[in-house]
Amino acid sequence: MRLNIKGLTLVELMIAMAVSLVVFGLIYQAYQAQQRARTREQLVVDMQQNARSALAFMRRELRMAGYQQPGTIYTPPHYLDLTMPG
After folding, report:
1. Would 86 be classed as within a structural domain?
2. Which residues are CB-neighbours of 16 under 8 A, at least 6 positions away?
3. Is the Cβ–Cβ distance between 68 and 74 less than 8 Å?
4. Are 76 and 70 in contact (CB under 8 A)?
5. How many degrees, rounded to 5, is the angle at CA 62 between CA 61 and CA 64?
6. What's the average model confidence in pLDDT over 54-66?
7. How far apart are CA 70 and CA 59, in angstroms?
8. Domain residues for 41?
């Protein structure tokens, strides 16, 4: 006599759910690790860009230090004016 059983038993279903839960947990952990790495990399990129901008600004300012156009009289900027009023 042959039994024609179709479907899953409760034990098989619970085992499949447990395996799926472990797999999804591992996938979620990998996703979180990737997100943390992306955030760290973005912070590094932002810091590097800020450093590049600061260096470019300093390079431009140093190149222009003491520059005066031909035919003009040098007047120091107002924030460096050390003369006494009056």
Report:
1. no
2. 8
3. yes
4. no
5. 65
6. 85
7. 22
8. 10-61
